[in-house]
Amino acid sequence: MNGLLLLLPELLIGALAFLVFSADLLLPSRRAPLVGWIAAVGMLALALFCAAWWGVSGRVGDLYVVDRFAVLFKVLALLMGAAVVLMSVDYARRRLPGAGEYYGLIVFAVLGIVIMTGATELLTAYIGLELLNFSLYVLVSYRKWNPKSNEAGTKYILLGALSSAVLLYGLSLLYGIAGTTSYGGIAAALAGSSPSPALNAALVLTLGGLGFKVAAVPFHMWAPDAYEGAPTPITAFLAVAAKAAGFGLLLRLVAEALLPALPLVVAPLAAIATATMILGNTVAIRQRNIKRLLAYSSIGQVGYLLVGLAAFGAGAAEAIVVHLVGYAAASFAAFLVVVIVENRTGDEEIADYAGLAERAPFAAFALTAAFFSLTGLPLLAGFVTKFALFLAAAQAGWTWLVAIGITTSVVSLYYYLMVIRQLYVVPPAKVGALGMTAAERGLLAVLLAATIAIGVVPAPLFAVIQSAVAPLFS
Amino acid sequence: MAIPLLSLMTLTPLAGALVLFAVPRERHGLIRAVALVAAGISAAAAAAVFLGYDSSRAGFQFVERLPWLPQLGIDYALAVDGSSAVMVLLTGVVIVTGVLVSWRIDYRPKDFFALLLILVAGVYGVFCSTDLFFFFFWYEVAVLPMYLLIAVWGSTNKEYGALKLTLMLVAGSILIWVGLLIVYAASGINSFDLFRLQQVAFDPTTQSIAFLLFMIGFGVLAGMWPLHTWSPDGHVAAPTAVSMLHAGVLMKLGAFGILRIAMTLLPEGARVWLPALLVLATVNVIYGALSAMAQRDLKYVVGYSSVSHMGYVLMGLASLSLVGTTGAVLQMFSHGIMTALFFAMVGVIYDQAHTRDIRAFGGLIRTMPAVSILFILAGLASLGLPGLSGFVAEVLVFSGLAQAQGWLFVALAVVGVAITATYILRLIARVFFGPPRGTSPALQEGSRLDVAAGAALAFFLIAVGLYPAPLLTPIVSSVLPIVRRLGGVE
Fold this sequence. Notes:
heterodimer; A: mainly alpha; two-stranded antiparallel sheet; 19 helices; 76% helix; globular; B: mainly alpha; 20 helices; 3% strand
C-alpha cells in the first residue's frame, strides 16, 4: 500500500469532522447531544478501523509515515477524543448552551495529534501541532460568558503563539544546520556534525517550544489558568491528550532526528525534569480548586515522563508510552468525576467534595482509585507504569533523578489524600445522591477497569507498546 | 495438580474484597460473613502451608511461578521457606481474630472489611513472594488501605495518626524502591528473581548503599528508632483490628524485609551496617520501654511496648549469630500474637468505657474476668515470663548476642526487660486489681466472640512457650544459610 491510500485514516477523520460540523448545522439546536454521539461513535469506529492497520507500514514521500507507532497513536488519539466527547455530552447540554462547533473542533484536535505523531518532517509535524493548538484555543475559551474561560483562552493563545514562535525558530535553525527538514536527513547531518552554538540553540529552542506544549517547568505558567478556565472536559483533553500528543511528537523527533545530538541536551533535560517534578507536585499541595490541583499534578506527571526522555533509549521510550497510557486512563477517570460533580452542583472547590462517598459512592471510589494510580500504588496502572519508567532511568544511570521522582510521588500522595479525606472522612455539607447518566457511568467503569487491568495484567500492553516503539529505532 | 496453596492464601482475601463490592451495603450480616469466610479460607491455607512445610528438606517449598511481565523480568513467584511459613501462620491467626473482634463495627462495614482484606492480602504476599518486584508490590498493597482504615474508623486524633503513618511508611518505601532499582541495574541480569539475584556477587559499594537504603526503608515499618514515631500514634488512632494487624503483622514486614532481601542479597553490606542496626535496636528496646512506662493511655503503653519489642527482633537480626537470628524470627511470631491479644482486649475495654486512661480503671478482674486474664497473659508474655512464648524468643536473642556480640548488649537488653516488667506489672496491678474506680464497676465481660478470639491468641502464646520446637525447626532451617553467608556464629 502506498501513496494517498496510506492517508485514508487521516482523510476519514477529517471527513468525520466535517460530518459533525454539518450535523450541527442541520440539526435543531435541541438535538445537540446527537451531534456529540455522532462524534463519539465516529471516533470509536475509526479507532477500530485504525487498529486494523496494525501490520500496515509505508511512507508518503519523506513527509509522513505509517508504522506501528503512528497506528498506536492514532488509536490512542481517537479513543481519548471519544472519551472527551462522552464526558462532554451531558456537560455541554447543561453548561455550554448553543455549543455548535465544539464536537467538530475536538475531532480536528484529534486529527492534529494523528498528524503530529505520523509526521517525519518538521513542517508537517508543525502543521499537525498547530491544528491541535488552534482547535484548543477555541475550545478553551468556549465558556463564552465566563470571564475565567475568556482569560484562560487569551493566556493560552498568547503563550501558545509565543511558544510556536520559539519552536519555529528552533526548527529553522535545525533546517539551517541540516539543509533539510526531513527527520532522516537531519539525523544523517547531525551524526557527522560537531557541537556548535547554532546546534545548541536549535535543540534548546525546539525542546523549549515543545516544552511549552506539554507544560514542562519553566514553560508551564499558562497551564493552571488555562486548566481552571476551560470547560472541564477540555481541561481533561489538555491535561492528557495534548500531553500525549506532545510526547508522541517528541519521541519520534528525538528517536529519528535528534538522537545523535541528544547528549548535548541531556543535562538541561534532567534539570527540567527535576524542576517539573518538584514544582508540579509541591505547588499542587496549596491548591483549593480541584481543576488547578489536577493541573499541577499533571505537570508533575510530565516531570516523570521527562525523566524517561533524559534516559532516552528504546526501553525508556517504551516506558514513556506505557506511562502515558496508564496516566491517560487514571487521569480521565479523575476528570470524569470532576465533570460529574461540577455538572450536578457547579462545585469546583476541593472542600465541596466533602462526603462524596455518601452521595456518590461509585464516583468517590473511582476518584480514589484514580488518585492512587497517579501516585503509583499497586493493583493499579500507575504502580507498574511508573516502575517501568524509573527502572529504565535507573538502568541508564539516573539514580538521583529516580530518587527525586519517587520522593515527589510521595508528596503527590499527600495532596491526593487531602482530597480523599474530603471524600470519605469529612461529613457531607450537602445531602442527596448525585446521579450519573448511563454514558458517564459506563465511561467511568471502562476507565476504572482499564486502570485496574493495566495494574494487574500489564504484559499485553507492554508487548503492544514494545512492538509499536521498535520502528522508531530501526 | 496440587492446589496452589500460596495463591489461594494470598488471593482469597482480594477475592473477598471484590465480592464485598457486590454485596448491598445495608446487609451487615452478609458482609461480616463474607469477610470471615475469606479470612478463614486464607488462614486455613496458611495453616496447611505451615503444617505441610517439610523442615528436613529445608529451602523454599510450595513454589509457584508465572511470567507476569517478561519484558522487565518480573515473575509472579510465590514460595515459602521456614521463616515465611511461620509468618503466614501468624498472619492467618491475626486476621481471623481481627475479623472476629471487628464484628461490632456497624459504620460502613462493607468498606471496612474490604480494606481490611486488601491489607491482609498484601501481608501474605510479602511473606511468600520470591520476586523482588512482587515483594514490593504486596508491600505497597499492605500500606494502601491504611489511611482510610484509620482516618474513617479510628479514634483519638485519627486523621493525624493516619496521615503520619501513611506518609512515613510510604516515605520509607521510597528508599526500598530506589534500593531495588539499584540492585536490579547493578545485577545486569534483567530479573527480579530472588534466587537468581542471590547468585550475583554485587560489588561492595553497591552492597553498602543498597543495604543502607533497605535497612532504613524497612526499618521505618519495623519501628526502628528514631523512625518509629508513626507507630504509637498510628496504633492508638487505628480501630482495634487494624491495630492488631498493624502491630501484630505489618511491623514484621519491615524486619522480614531486612532478613529476606537485605541480608540475603547483600552480605557485604550487612557486615558494614548490622553493627549500626544493633545500636539503633538497643536504643529501641530501652527507649521504647521507658516511653511505655510514661504513658497513661492503655493503647499508647502497648504501642510503645511494640517499639521496644521490635527492638529485640532487630537486635536478633543484627546479632550475626544463628541462635540470635532464630530468636528474632520467633520473637516476630511471639510479639505478633501477644500484641494482637493486647490490642484486642484494650478494644473490648475501650468499646465499653470510652476511655483508655489507666487512671480511670481499677479492679477490672471482678467485672470482666476473662478479658482481664487474657490481657494479663499478654502482659506476662511481654515481660518474658517462662512458659510463654516471649521467654523463649528473648532467651534465644540474648544467647545469640552473648555468643557473637559480647555482654554489653545483653546487659542493655536485660535492662529493657526489667523496665518492661516494671511498667507491665504496675499497669496490671492498677487496672485489673485494686479497688474499683471510675466506670470500672459498670463494665461487663466481653462478648463470646471477643473472648474466643482472645483465647485463640492466648493458646499460641502458651503452646509456643511450652513447646517451641515446631516453630524453631523450620525457622532454623531457613535462617542457617543466611547466617552462614554472613559468616555469623552458628
